[in-house]
UniProtKB/TrEMBL annotation:
InterPro entries: Aldolase_TIM, Alpha-hydoxy_acid_DH_FMN, FMN-dep_DH, FMN_HAD, FMN_hydac_DH_AS
Family: Belongs to the FMN-dependent alpha-hydroxy acid dehydrogenase family.
NCBIfam families given in the database record: PRK11197.1
Stated name of the protein: Alpha-hydroxy-acid oxidizing protein
Keywords, sorted A to Z: Flavoprotein, FMN, Oxidoreductase
Amino acid sequence: MSKPLTIADLKKLARRRVPRMFFDYADSGAWTEGTYRANEEDYSKIKLRQRVLVDMTDRSLESTMVGQKVSMPVALAPTGLTGMQHADGEMLAAKAAEEFGVPFTLSTMSICSIEDVASVTSKPFWFQLYVMKDRGFIERLIGRAKAANCSALVVTADLQILGQRHKDIRNGLSAPPKPTLDAAFQLVTRPRWCLEMLGTKRRSFGNIVGHASNVSDLSSLGAWTAEQFDPRLSWSDIRWIKDLWGGKLIIKGILDEEDARAAADTGADAIIVSNHGGRQLDGAPSSISMLPKIVEAVGDRIEVHVDGGIRSGQDVLKAVALGARGTYIGRPFLYGLGAMGKAGVTTALEIIRNELDITMALCGKRDIQTIDRSILANTSF
Ligand SMILES: Cc1cc2nc3c(=O)[nH]c(=O)nc-3n(C[C@H](O)[C@H](O)[C@H](O)COP(=O)(O)O)c2cc1C
């Protein structure tokens, strides 16, 4: 394939290079995948106003997210098992994000550890926290994120229990892959991936292994999550985490106005309107369709960010127009990583920046910070 021009091009390449169980892990949603599809489809329903004969020179995409400068309002979302899309995936993606001037968010369920990522970056990255029953482990994890100089903590609220994703069950997803005939077939057909994976020692959950006690079966993500994640997590735990952390706090996985108000009451710095990329509650509305209502409810009290279904810079602009201060991409950067390693993550960011910049200009605007609903042709969305 010639140089990838779209996120869809990167997805095609990743499908060829990444073993099926890990490609499918990224390209999957819960149950019917209806919410996963809606996240993408609903962006195409939003139409832009074409403006002409206005000055389009000297454009700027610079903005801030939780007070931190970003070269465009797009962060890399936390994604588990990223080091299985490509060897040392989290370290590569973090470096690409740092060079690009956008935040990288490391998942609790990453392959490379907090310390691994800190060892290859020079600017602070963000850390995403899943809350487990073992609060001692959570305290140590937060301590490690502080020691690594992470500049924001993203607490994920929408995964107290794991949604069911059929592909993962059928593929027997595990990290590292279990020695089955099917897994062996998937690996031999991806020799480059295997070679690169043989060249790293990072093949399991770097933040957990050797740090959490009572880890019985970590290779089976589903079983481990069911055993360790805290289904009793509550708003009072968020206050406990906020005090413990003491820095910028972002609550991820808000899809309801009432929950948004409760999140604002905690004094957190931002919320992410998100349905976990359609991977948790299938049948929930798309995140972009909920954004305006949530901005209306709490936009004057807390920064509102959004993720889910962003596949182009146009989608980023639409989200900003509907009131998002920041956006996140999950699968787009994973496809880039699987396709071409660090260069693929950079390519994904470049594609999005280029689309965002040209679209903003053709809407007659020069500064992302001035974008509002006036650039939309159908504001009733
Ligand atoms: C493969 C994969 C793994 C994910 N793992 C995590 C995770 O560990 N923690 C988390 O908060 N969200 C996780 N998410 C959700 C993302 O942070 C984000 O909400 C979602 O990917 C956004 O949708 P998009 O992929 O359409 O951009 C994951 C998403 C994907 C696709």
